[in-house]
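Field: COMPLEX_INPUT
Field: COMPONENT_COUNT = four
Field: RESIDUE_TOTAL = 548
Field: MODE = joint
Values follow.
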Amino acid sequence: MISNRFDLRVIYADTDMMGRVYYGKYLEYFEAARSHMLRAINLPYSELEKMGVFLPVIEAHCEYKGAATFEDNLIIHTSINQFPKAKIRIDYKVFKDGNEAVIAKGYTVHSFIKKTGQPIRPPKIFLDALKNHWVEE
Amino acid sequence: MISNRFDLRVIYADTDMMGRVYYGKYLEYFEAARSHMLRAINLPYSELEKMGVFLPVIEAHCEYKGAATFEDNLIIHTSINQFPKAKIRIDYKVFKDGNEAVIAKGYTVHSFIKKTGQPIRPPKIFLDALKNHWVEE
Amino acid sequence: MISNRFDLRVIYADTDMMGRVYYGKYLEYFEAARSHMLRAINLPYSELEKMGVFLPVIEAHCEYKGAATFEDNLIIHTSINQFPKAKIRIDYKVFKDGNEAVIAKGYTVHSFIKKTGQPIRPPKIFLDALKNHWVEE
Amino acid sequence: MISNRFDLRVIYADTDMMGRVYYGKYLEYFEAARSHMLRAINLPYSELEKMGVFLPVIEAHCEYKGAATFEDNLIIHTSINQFPKAKIRIDYKVFKDGNEAVIAKGYTVHSFIKKTGQPIRPPKIFLDALKNHWVEE
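Field: COMPLEX_OUTPUT
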């Protein structure tokens, strides 16, 4: 598996009139955490795109177990638990700093495409980066 | 079932550098469509909140089958297919105007709570509004 | 001058924990209204971009006189009051439906560039569209 | 004056189909930087709100001198240059890390109100925090 920790602080813009982080914002948090994980394995997503490799989201899921609010420090644990074939699944768990309770968890599934939209296999450079950082659970 | 159609036009802010609507935006589109459906059954969500009834999202799911871009006219078909007990599930399908292909589909699941966060049963006014507009499939 | 009216309904995502529309959202409202005005003069911004003409914002300003909240119906009056030379300025006033009080007003200034970023003069098709719809005040 | 540096990394959600950070996002960046500055003078905005003091934005301005894109490291220099009377003005300058060119600059003006919306004078605790951290230019 690959795992990564990403920290973020909730801004006012992320909250809604219920006083909580708006449910759609978690998909942005997942994206920030996902990009952070890719940088940690030396494969920034911006570099992948420059090589002509795009990983659009084809499925996204989130379960909300608790609430976060303005100025909360959130920790997002991101992980890849299955080595990718045609698609890749990435898992996320969101915590408040100093608290073990999961406030949200979810996953995204991505395909690999060219800029034209044509599906491709996961490129070797991507699979190699995963292998180099893969840790048996 | 309850079903509803909501139309929206993609703005530039909704797009990302892939030239598509950002995946997280669909949860905002779902919300706009959901609120539109509640107004159509004479139960605006703003009125529910004034009565002290909140329907936070406890689960959200979206599958992306195609892409939308700036100035596309999107149609969102929203439906409630099961009469709610403790929770309510709402389904969404997104189309481009004039095209039968689903570009995204998903659902949200909501609980019923008081402002304090305490879970409550779906209020009678809510269940009555559903009954009054319920159509057998 | 060119003037245009655009209607929109505030969604929950647009609000913040103060219970109001978040101040940054007004720039999205301005954009939606601006694109609506360009469509009304038969010059959709998506068409302009396809011709290789981009109008990035080089200045944005907004004054907040009141507050809007979830499910408010807003009306945005958009206008071009000076015929453009190198740049174009667009003005916006936001009202609640049925109320004369301005809740926000502002402007954006845009340059004309090619996709490469190179500045260009306003293209003839753009100036012609303005002339064809120009109304003396 | 009070001055502060805030670092952020551009996420994909912040970009638009021009491949740049969307112009409205800068107001969110300003907010994140502003809240960061208030925490640095031991006056987190979340604490102010708990004391019943709100600082809504009554004016916002931004000039765009350059462009930022996905994964750019941005630095925001935030400053208060005039000691507040009834209102407070906060200034922002956005740079890319390692580059002296300003890519955006702007300001926000805030009033002081109670939750009810009633204008108040800047509270003593706020003025004291400014005095304690004030540096002559």
